[in-house]
Amino acid sequence: PADPLSPQEHGLDFQRLLDASAYKEMYRQDMIRWGEEKRRADPGFFCRTAVEGAVQPVWVVSDTRRLSDVEWFRDVYRDAVQTVRVVATEETRKRRNWVFVAGVDDAESECGLDQGVAFDWVITNDGDEQSLDQQLETLVRSLRGRL
Fold first, then answer.
1. Residues of the chain with pLDDT > 90: what percent?
2. Residue 113 needs a FRET pair 20 to 30 A away by CA distance; which of 66, 68, 97, 123 works?
3. Which stretch is the leader sequence (predicted)?
4. Is residue 8 very low, low, confident or very high in pLDDT (cuts 50, 70, 90)?
5. Which residue stretches of the chain are H helix?
6. First to last CA, the chain
């Protein structure tokens, strides 16, 4: 969105804000603060922005972070919504170079969906490719059956 505090207005590299780099970490808390201000003013702001102009019969909305996001999609799209949580153990995450940062990784933007959501699907991604493939195939079959 074209907002005075958006990454574009600050000359930030949006693509680099999406990866797990030192660049992202440098701006992460400011962007979280900006996002929280937008959500306080309008809980559906980011959800509406994400779907604006979309006409596809099936969407995959990745990386929702808050209960208000899930509630917005459920309120607007009702039974068409299927929620999927992807989990990995802390050990697996550390092997993938994740390092806990207090004040960031324990903030709502990172763990707001750890409680209070009954997910339709929970996919485990701990590095077992065969298991992951089986879980995803089951999910895809179910979704195709709903079309």
1. 37
2. 97
3. none
4. low
5. 14-17, 22-41, 45-51, 67-77, 90-95, 108-111, 129-146
6. 31
